[in-house]
Inverse folding.
C-alpha cells in the first residue's frame, strides 16, 4: 500500500509546455495536488518556445522555468551566453538549460554541440543560476567541458541520470545533484537502481521528464508530474527508507539548488 506523504514532492524536470500536456493543464495540476506534488520545474528546450515555458511560470505560482537550448536541436541560430543570461534575469527563471551533449541521437562533427554547451555554462556563471545538464553517450566530454568552463561555481543537476557511479561521483564533486526519472522503476535498470541506493540523499533530486519515460506502473503511457511519486516510492524501497524521507530530502534539495522560497 502506498504511504501517505507528509512532505510534498517536487518534479524537478518536466515539459508542461509541450502540446500534449499543455492542452490538459488544469487536469495535470489537479493530479499533482492529489499526489502531493507541490511544485514543478518546466524546462526549456529551445528559445523559440521559451515564451511558452515562461508563461506557465508566470501564470502559476507553483511552476518555475528554465531557459536553454537542448543539444539535439540542430540548425538553429546558436544561443550566446549574454542572450541566455539576459533571459534568465526574469525572477521566474531559476536555471540555465537543458543543455549538455548527446552523442546518441546525432553523429558526425558535433563541435557545435560542445560550443553550445560552453555558452550555456558561461551564461550560468554570468547570471549565477544553476545548470540543468543532459548527457547521453558523451559523459567524458560532458565532464571535461564542465571542468574547463568552471561549472562547479554554479552547480546544477545531472538530469535523468543513466550514467555510471564514477560519473555520478565526478559530477557531485563539481557541486552537481543527481536526478532520477521513471527509468529507475524499470525492471532492467539494474545498475541505475544500485546507484540510487548509493547516492547521498542530500545530493538527490527526482523528476518525470514529462511527457517522456513514464514510470512503472504507467510505463508506455504519457508521463506527467504527478507520476514523480512513483519515482520516489521506488527509491524509498531500494534504500529501505520511507517515501517521506525521500520527499523531505529531494524537496529540500530542489529549493536549495534553485534558490527559491
Amino acid at each position: 500500500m502506498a504511504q501517505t506523504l507528509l512532505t510534498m514532492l517536487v518534479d524537478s524536470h518536466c515539459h508542461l509546455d509541450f502540446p500534449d500536456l499543455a492542452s490538459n493543464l488544469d487536469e495535470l495540476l489537479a493530479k499533482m495536488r492529489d499526489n502531493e506534488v507541490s511544485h514543478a520545474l518546466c524546462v526549456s528546450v529551445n528559445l523559440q518556445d521559451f515564451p511558452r515555458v515562461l508563461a506557465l511560470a508566470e501564470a502559476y505560482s507553483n511552476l518555475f522555468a528554465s531557459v536553454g537550448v537542448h543539444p539535439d536541436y540542430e540548425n538553429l541560430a546558436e544561443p550566446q551566453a549574454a542572450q541566455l543570461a539576459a533571459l534568465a534575469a526574469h525572477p521566474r527563471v531559476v536555471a540555465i538549460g537543458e543543455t549538455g551533449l548527446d552523442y546518441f541521437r546525432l553523429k558526425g562533427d558535433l563541435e557545435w554541440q560542445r560550443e553550445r554547451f560552453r555558452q550555456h555554462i558561461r551564461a550560468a556563471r554570468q547570471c549565477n543560476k544553476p545548470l540543468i545538464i543532459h548527457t547521453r553517450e558523451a559523459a567524458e566530454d560532458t565532464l571535461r567541458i564542465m571542468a574547463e568552463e568552471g561549472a562547479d561555481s554554479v552547480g546544477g543537476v545531472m538530469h535523468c541520470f543513466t550514467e555510471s557511479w564514477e560519473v555520478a561521483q565526478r559530477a557531485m564533486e563539481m557541486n552537481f545533484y543527481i536526478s532520477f526519472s521513471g527509468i529507475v522503476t524499470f525492471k532492467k535498470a539494474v545498475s541505475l537502481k544500485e546507484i540510487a541506493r548509493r547516492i547521498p540523499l542530500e545530493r538527490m533530486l527526482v523528476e518525470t521528464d514529462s511527457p517522456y519515460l513514464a514510470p512503472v506502473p504507467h510505463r508506455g503511457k504519457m508521463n506527467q508530474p504527478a507520476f514523480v511519486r512513483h519515482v520516489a516510492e521506488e527509491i524509498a524501497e531500494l534504500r529501505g527508507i520511507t517515501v517521506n524521507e525521500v520527499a523531505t530530502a529531494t524537496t529540500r534539495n530542489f529549493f536549495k539548488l534553485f534558490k527559491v522560497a
Q: What stands out?
A: The two ends are 32 Å apart (CA to CA). The beta strands are 9-14, 37-42, 63-67, 93-102, 131-136, 156-158, 176-180, 204-206. The chain has ten helices and eight strands. The chain has one domain: 9-257.
